[in-house]
Write a structure and sequence with these properties.
The complex is a heterodimer of chains A (99) and B (314).
Chain A (H helix, E strand, L loop, with lengths): L2 E3 L13 E3 L5 H11 L4 H4 L10 E5 L2 E2 L15 E6 L14
Parallel strand pairs in A: 1-5
Antiparallel strand pairs in A: 1-2, 3-4, 3-5
Chain B lengths: L4 H11 L10 E3 L12 E6 L10 H13 L8 E5 L3 H13 L3 E6 L4 H9 L3 E5 L4 H15 L4 E3 L6 H18 L6 E5 L4 H13 L4 E7 L28 E5 L1 H15 L5 H16 L4 E6 L10 H4 L3
Parallel strand pairs in B: 2-10, 3-4, 3-6, 4-5, 7-8, 7-10, 8-9
Antiparallel strand pairs in B: 1-2
Helix pairs in contact in B: 2-3, 2-6, 6-7, 8-9
The chains are: A alpha+beta (99), B alpha/beta (314).
Chain lengths: 99, 314
């Protein structure tokens, strides 16, 4: 099953879990499974229209899923999806962070 | 020919950029309120008129000045701090002018504009894990300071009292002078809480009848750069829980909408935290029949142009 990495600010709503494995073959299905397991997360991730809130970015292999197929982006068993908030419109995800 | 370098250094220290910090214009927001409901007037301090382009020049200059006065920044010592952007740009601006090396810990998902500006100003950047947010940058800076005490002066904007004192000395008196003492409500975003704490303490000392309203995001995950959701993040050491009479929570989407409104209806090209402040100021003004509501616009919109979602109305 695909793995989802939860940013620190949202861990209070996942009982402290930072990595969650969830069923789903697309980004949308994994997100659905996530908010089903942790309903409190829903308002932080999704707007009234069910779409991602504008500052929530999902990254798959260093790519923002918006640049792939959006919520319909297919996922494999081994994929890891990262939830990254945008800070002031930050769209880039860089790997060279401090240890 | 006379050696101009000492003269230039003196100018930079005493009369140059630092002397331009503060005394920012107070702008009227004429179309913001519902005039059928309230006669309240709303104003915003245009903090992008500071030399490095944001409100952070006030605390940055206050912190650097005090550290120099106390002999904490000696030749070769780096000023180190964590930042989500504007404070780092302010440190880098003054640091370059004064010959102080600057090292900044910042989440790697900060906007490309910020990273490029700090690079351009010659600051050393340590990009931190985006999953950890601004708290992650704080922890990395703390760790670096603890491991290399001889290398760094850790400015620690979240805990440094010079942060709120700068606003007590400058922002508070300016608000009174520019409104001729008629301010009734002060609305301010909360990040390090330096502006809130400093201005609130000034008002409580001299104009205690002014109501102070803090503004924070409605979620720990948000797009309101510079603002913190205080319930779920590392609480700044300078935060004074009695500083605000009440706190208003703002949705990022509403702040985005307000940024577009301010640009297109008022001609004010401002950043996201200014949008959040204006949403809260409008709410406060519409609740009262009359009064003078003043808020802070921390920066202009230039550093947010790469966020396409911000500028396109949904």
């Amino acid at each position: 099953m695909p793995t989802l990495k939860i940013p620190t600010p949202l861990r209070p709503y996942t009982s402290g879990e930072s990595t969650i494995t969830l069923p789903g073959e697309t980004v949308a299905e994994v997100l659905e499974a996530l908010v089903e397991r942790h309903p409190e997360l829903k308002r932080h991730l999704l707007g009234d229209n069910g779409q991602l809130r504008p500052y929530v970015n999902l990254f798959l292999k260093e790519e923002n899923v918006n640049q792939l197929q959006g919520l319909e982006t297919p996922l494999t068993e081994r994929d890891t999806l990262l939830i990254i908030p945008s800070i002031a419109g930050g769209k880039e995800h860089r790997r060279d962070h401090a240890p | 020919m006379q050696d101009l370098i000492p003269f230039v250094k003196r100018i930079k220290l005493d009369e140059g950029m630092p002397s331009l910090v503060g005394n920012t214009p107070l702008l009227p927001l004429v179309t913001l309120t519902d005039r059928t409901r309230t006669k309240a007037q709303v104003f915003a301090k245009a903090e992008w008129f500071n030399p490095s382009g944001s409100v952070k020049d006030r605390p940055a200059w206050g912190i650097i000045q005090q550290a120099l006065h106390q002999g904490l920044i000696l030749p070769g010592i780096h000023l180190l701090d964590s930042t989500s952007g504007n404070m780092g740009i302010a440190y880098a601006t003054f640091g370059t002018a004064l010959g102080i090396p600057i090292t900044l810990a910042m989440p790697s998902n900060a906007s490309p504009e910020r990273i490029k500006i700090m690079d351009a100003l010659g600051a050393e950047l340590v990009l931190t894990d985006p999953l950890e947010g601004s708290d992650g940058a704080i922890l990395v800076a703390r760790e670096m300071a603890a491991e290399n005490p001889g290398k760094y002066y850790y400015a620690n904007q979240y805990d440094n009292p010079e942060n709120w004192k700068a606003h007590y000395r400058t922002t508070g008196p300016e608000l009174i002078e520019q409104t001729q003492g008629k301010i009734t409500h002060f609305v301010v975003g909360m990040g390090t809480t330096g502006t809130l704490t400093g201005v609130s303490r000034y008002l409580r000392d001299y104009y205690p009848e002014v109501e102070v309203i803090g503004v924070q995001p409605d979620s720990p995950l948000n797009g309101l750069e510079g603002l913190k959701h205080l319930l779920t993040t590392i609480q700044p050491g300078i935060y004074d829980p009695t500083a605000a009479d009440r706190i208003i929570e703002i949705r990022t989407e509403d702040a985005y909408g307000m940024v577009r409104f301010l640009a297109r209806e008022e001609g004010y090209f401002v950043g996201i935290s200014s949008g959040a402040a204006a949403v809260a100021a409008r709410q406060v003004a519409n609740e009262i029949k009359d009064g003078v509501v003043v808020t802070i616009f921390p920066d202009a919109g230039f550093k947010y142009l790469s966020d396409e979602d911000l500028w396109i109305a949904s």
